Amino acid sequence: MAKALNDGLRKAMEDNPKVLLMGEDIGKLGGVFRVTDGLQKDFGEDRVIDAPLAESAIVGTAVGLAIRGFRPVCEIQFDGFVYPAFDQIVSQVAKLHNRSNGVYTMGLVIRIPFAGGIGAIEHHSESPEGYFSHTAGLRVVSPSNANDAYWMIQQAIAHDDPIIFCEPKCRYWEKADVDTTRAPRGLFEAALKREGSDVTLIAYGPSVKTALRAAEAAQKEGLSLEVIDARSISPMDFPVMAASVEKTGRFVVLHEALASASVSSEVVARLTEECFYSLRAPGVRVTGYHTPYPPSRVEEEFLPNVDRILDAVDRVMGYDE
Amino acid sequence: MVDSQLVQLLTPEGERVHDSDYDTQLSSGDVFGMYRDMVIIRRLCNEATSLQRQGQLALWAPLQGQEAAQIGAGRALDPMDFSFPSYREHGVAWCRGIPPINWLRLFRAVDLGGWDPYQYRHSVPTIVIGNQALNAVGYAMGIQRDGGKEATIVFFGDGATSQGDVNEAFVWASSFDAPVVFFVQNNQWAISEPTIKQTKIPLYLRAQGFGFPGIRVDGNDVLAVYEVTRRALANAREGGGPTLIEAFTYRMGAHTTSDDPTRYRVDAEVEAWKHRDPVERVKAFLVRGHKVTNKKLDAVSEEAEAMALQLRADLLAMPDPDPLSIFDHAYAAPHPYIEEGRRDMIELGVGGAK
What we know:
Shape of chain A: globular
Number of domains of chain A: 2
Radius of gyration of chain A: 19 Å
Number of domains of chain B: 2
Strand content of chain B: 5-15%
Strand order of the largest sheet of chain B: 1-2-3-7-6
CATH topology of the largest domain in chain A: Rossmann fold
Number of helices of chain A: 12
Strand content of chain A: 15-25%
Helix content of chain B: 40-55%
Oligomer: heterodimer
Number of helices of chain B: 13
Shape of chain B: globular
CATH topology of the largest domain in chain B: Rossmann fold
Low-confidence stretches of chain A: none
C-alpha cells in the first residue's frame, strides 16, 4: 500500500504542478514509512518540502499555500502528533471556504498514518478520525487496500474540499495488484467487499481486512456475513450500508477508535433510523476500549479482532432465539 | 516607556525628527492624505461603537489610538501585496479599498467574513489569536514558488506573540526566507493583561532569536510606520526575507465593546497616551510644518461626518441573511449531509423557501 500511495502521489504531482508535499522527513528520507520515497529527488525541494518540526505550521502554512492557489498535501508523521495542528485544521482549514463565502478553495489533503497493530510505543497507534468527522467543512476518508490507496489519494488531491486522509499503517506493507487504468469508484462511495445474508459488517481502513477474516471464519460455522468497506468516514455512504442492512436485518460496526461519540455511534444511529422496520437486532459495535491506547504488547486484545467480531455476530444472531 | 531604539519621524508634538536610516520622500499631499485616512477611520470606528451600543452590532473592536499604525502600514503596501488581518484592522481594510459597510458585516453577525479577499488583496478576519501568522507565511512561500514578486504582511497584537502559531510562523519564515512582514501592534494590553505578561524583553528583540531583523517603530507616528513598513516590504520583495515590526502604540478604548478597561488600567495611563495621540500629532505637523489651513482640516472632518452618517444608514438597511444560505459554502462540492440539512429547513418552511 505504501508504494501505491507513492505512485498515486507521483501521478498527482505529474498531473498538476500546483501539488506540493510537505511534512517532516519526507524528502531525503522519504518519510518514516517511505510513502514519499524518491519524490523530492524527482520534483525538487520546492515541491517536496521537508518541514521544520511543527505540525501546526505544516497545516497553517498549507492553508496559506492553498490561498495562493496551490494544492498542498501535508503528511503528519503519526496520528498522535496531529493534535498540535488541530486548531488550524478545525478553525482555518475547515472554515475558510465558508468564511470567505466560497472564494477560498481549501483543496488540501492531510495524510495521517493512523491506527495500531504495529507494536508501536505510545502516540503511534491512535485513531483520531472521529474528531475530524465531527467537524463541518472537512471530509475524512480511509483506504483499506493498495488499489484504493492509489486512486483515493489522487481523488482526494483533485477534490476542492479539505480531506483528512487516514492511512492504515498496519496495511502499508501489504502487497496487492493496482489497476492503474481506472478508478474503482468515487471517493465517497462505500464498497461491498463480500456478499452475505445473515449479518452486515461495516468497517473501514485497517478493520476491513479483519472483517473479511471474520467472515471467512464465520462461514465455517455456517454464518454468511456481508462486509462493507465504508472508505469514506465523513460523509458516509449510508445508502449502500442501508441497502445491505435491509437485506440482512443485522449489522456490526468495527473500528479501532473507542465507541463513545464515535463514527460507529453515527452509523448505528443512522441505520437504526433508516432501517428500523428491517432490523432483527440492534446494531452492535466492536471498537477499541475506553482507555488510552494500551501498551502494544496487549494491543491485540484491545483491537477489534476476529474473536471479538464473531462474539458480536453471535450477539446479533441471538436476538432471533 | 520609549527606548532609544524607537524609530520616530514625528515627535508627539508634531515636530519633524530626522532619521538617516528612515528618511521619507512623502509630499505634504501624501501626509495630508494619511491624516484624512486617520480622521475618517476614527470617525467610522466611533460610529460603529455607537451602533453597537444601540444594539445594531453584536460586537465592535475599536481601533482608536492605533490609526497611525494601521494607516502607515496600510499605505505602505503595494496594490498586489497580500495582507492578513486579525479582527481590529479596520484602518488597513480602509487602505485596501474595502467599503466600510463590509467591515461591519462580521460584527453585525450577518456574515463570517465580509469581502472578497482576492479582490482587495486582504484576507478575511481571523479571530483565533495568531492563526493567521502561519497562513501568511504559507502564502509567502507560495509567492516564492510561483515566481511572484509581491510581499505578504500579517497583523496581530502583543497578546498573539505568546501563541505557538506566531512563534512557529517566525521559525518557518526564517527557515524559508519567506517574503513576509510580521506587523505586531503592541497596544500594551491583551484585553486585561499588560504586555509584561507576554514578554520580558521588547517584542521586536524576539526576531533576533529567530534569525531575522526586528524593528520597533513609534506606532503613533504615521510617517515612521509608513517608512519602516515600506522598507520591510521592499526587502521582502527583493528576497531579503522576513522582518518583525513592533508598532509601539496604545489602545485608547476597550478591547471590544464587551470589555471594561477601567477594571484593569488607571486613568493616568490613558491620559498620558492622549498626549501621544496619532491624529493630533500629524495634524500639528501639517498645521505647523505645512501651513495646512483650518478650512482644509474642517473639510476632512465634514467628509468623515458624512461618511459616518452614510455608514449608519447603510447598516440600518442591511438585511439578515437567508437562513438557507448557511448551506451554501460549508463545502465546495455537493455533500449529502448539507443536502439533508437544506431539505429539512425547506420542509420547515424557513427562509427563501417561504
